Structures are given as structure tokens and as C-alpha cells.
Amino acid sequence: MPVTKPRQIQIASPVIGQDEIQAVCEVLESGWLTQGPRVAAFEKKFAEIHGVKHAIAVTSCTTGLHLALTAMGIGLGDEVILPAFTWVATANVVVQCGATPVFADVDPVTYNIDPQDILKRITTHTKAVMPVHLFGLCSEMDVIQDILPDHIKILEDAACASGAMYKDRPAGSLGDAGVFSFHPRKSITTGEGGMITTNDDQIAELAGMLRNHGASISEEQRHRGSKSYLLPEFNHLGFNCRMTDLQGALGLAQLDQLQRFIKERDLRANWYTQELSTIPWLRMPERPCDGTHAWQAFVTYIDPDTAPMSRNHLMEQLQEVGISTRPGTHAVHMLGYYAQRFGIKPTDYPRAMDCDHNTMAIPLHNQMSKDDYQHVVETLKAMS
Ligand SMILES: *Cc1c(COP(=O)(O)O)cnc(C)c1O
After folding, report:
1. Domains of the chain: which residue ranges?
2. Which atom of ligand 1 is nearest to the CA of 186?
């Protein structure tokens, strides 16, 4: 008797095809494995697609955010404003720089940082704001830009937003710099990996040096040409955050498919919304009226007052029929480290706390069949 595997629909699943496998094999055969021509080509193409002058590949979005903050001169005594509802890395990098994270509450409908709440948090120490384009939906960048004084930098946490558009401008081109993630749970993947984008020459140059131990080639040496071996100078305290050429090749192959991935997910997201909005206690994610949602995740909100069971109970029931779900993300101010070190109460950010308790991501990715989507919809409808 053949054993039929029980159905299991993952929350996310990367698409790795023959193009990706061949691209990585070519790098292995070339003998050049670390940052080299494939990373350079990946950076060039990523910059073109996201409408920026510079793209600097790094080992993750987290290290990219760290380098970008450092390149902006953020350090001890500075304050950085960020949303209370985000992945913990957004806050961790601020602390790693020696600066103080200052949380702002989020908009309950878009899950993104509330510009009006940013205003309340600005002090004379505020040096930067980090809007997060959560789940692939861009933050209200025009409003944020308008309310901030010029000396406060804007760093977009665009981890979930490869290919997302705000009005007619790409994510990553909207602030002083932006950083993307290529973790397998994101839209395109290089295993681990990240990309800093910026139109600012100085941030680009500094970030490029910081990822490579702080090494720079001086102007004088550059002019001497390529014949002699160029000795770098080390005038900055750097890190090693270089992406490998294996990842660069993988990223290039993935980038070719980004638009198709987003289009496919957008169709499915539309269908989910159409089918599931009949469930009164389940709120669908917001779509931008002008712009493109990149749909890194499809995050619903379960109304605790009218739902037949709690969010966590619902997640367990879905798991039992092979449907993986996740809470949207964390209210970072409620995580042990932040709550204790900064003395923050859960109710200090009531909307982030509510999102933490009641949001649920349901499966949406490019490896799901029509039948899989049908199964999710039918299961949820049967519960209502
Ligand atoms: C995934 C994610 C990160 C971290 O990305 P890594 O590449 O895993 O370091 C940061 N911020 C947000 C909002 C994320 O979703």
C-alpha cells in the first residue's frame, strides 16, 4: 500500500529552479567564491530595478541595517525612532550601534509606523527614523518625509519589500538609504543575504568600506592605475559583511523572476481577499491605493471580540489540517530584553500589542497549487 503523505502547506517556500542551480554551479567551477563579479552584477541589476544609484550587497538585512546606521554616523547618545511592531532585528541594530531605540506605535490597518506617533517621539537627540515596509506594504513615506526636519535621516527597513512600490517610486529609493533581506522567508532569496540601497554617494562609499574591514583604496592609489598592487588604507572600524559570489549568482537568477513572483502572489492575494472577506471576524490586509504590495506575507487580523476562538487556538486548528500559519510579527517592546532594559509596559504601545496578539499570516507563496489555496479558504470558511 502506498503511504500518502499528509498535506502540509508551508508558510513560505523559496522557488529554486534549474537557472539557480546552474548559476551557482558555474561559480563553483569558476574557482572564485567570495565577493566578485557575480555580486557586482547582482548589485548593478538590483540598483536598476529599485531606481537607485548604489546597491551594496551584504550578508543579511540585519548587518546591512547596522552598516547603514553606522555610515549615517549614528552612535552613542543618539535616538532612533522605529515601529514597535516589527522583526526584532530592526531594534537590535540600533542598540548594537550604541544608540537608543525609541518605539512609535503602528497604524492598526496597515501595521506600519504611525507618522503622527513619530512626531510625539522626536527629541533633540533624534538622529534617524526607520520606517519598516512590513509584509511588503510601503510605509507612508511622503507624510513621514514632510513631518521630519531635514537633519533627521530616514533608513527604510525594506526587508520584506523587494519590488514593492510607493506610488510610482520603488522601495529602497524613498529615504536616505534602504536595506533588503534575501532570507528564504522573503520574496527572493540567496539563503542569507541583504542589500543596502542609496542615492547618497557618501553613505554608499562608507557602507562599502565598512563591509570589508574598513578597507579603502585612496584616491592617489586609484590614480596610479591597476598595474601595481593597491594597498588599502584602514581609516574606519569595519566588519566583514561581504556576500559570496555563490549568493550573488543565486540572487541574479532570483531577481529575473521577481516581477513574476509578485504578480502571481498579487493574484492569489486578490482571490484570498475576495473569498475570505465574507468572514466577519477576519480582517484582510490593506492594499495600497496607488503602489505595489510585494506580498512578502498575507497577514490577517482576527477580531478577538467576535472570533469563535482565540488566534492561538485557531493557529493550532489550522496546523492540524496541514496549514502552517504564524503570528504577523512581534511587538518588540514586549520582548524580554526591551521590556526589561528600557522599562516599557505592553500597554505603552497598545496597537502594537494588539497586532502581536491578534495577527495571523496565512500561507501565500509561489510554490502553492490552486488546490492548496482552495484548502486554506475552505478550512477558514468552515470555521466561521
Ligand atoms: C526579515 C527581517 C529582517 C532581518 O532580515 P535578515 O536578512 O534575516 O537579517 C529585518 N527587518 C524585517 C522587518 C524583517 O522582516
Report:
1. 18-255, 259-382
2. 1
